[in-house]
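Quick note —
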Amino acid sequence: MGAYKYITKTFQDEYKERSNLLRERIASWRRESPVTRIERPTNVARARELGYKAKQGVVIVRVRVRRGLRKREKPAGGRKPSNNGRFFAYTKSLQSMAEERAAARFTNCEVLNSYFVGEDGKYKFFEAIMLDRDHGSIKNDPIYSGIAGSRRRVFRGLTSSGKKHRGLLHDGFGTNKNRPSIRSKRRGIRA
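Predicted structure written out below.
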């Protein structure tokens, strides 16, 4: 096995066993601010799979997101019981929400991708790989330059997790109403 396979296996074992190292790590993350820039990725193997390179202009951000369903406020007026619901699942994944929060905090960067790093009873933690769009080394990189050139791609659902919650990761039978988008198909707009 190569080095990255060992790293991946170590992370999986830590997570399955709920090792002390992982618990301490999550406890320290809980005390940090919800969106924190970090020096290097926690899981290097996963970051490299998703396009991370250790070069100038590439930024890693850890984001903390609250787990669970969205809780609506209690309605003031009367409702019949079927319309009185208060807990609703998000259409977006928590990972997409984490990417959006990272992009809102670091406005000069574009989100390349993100990955899960841990969770406790209250929060999930993700690390987002971000590209500084004005940095010379990013502009000159043939892979990164096209991604950094598109503005606000995370808010338009163009990252991997964004495409997933839009239903665009799969092709063929059962997905014919997902393209160009679910909303445009519902409105009957032909593209």
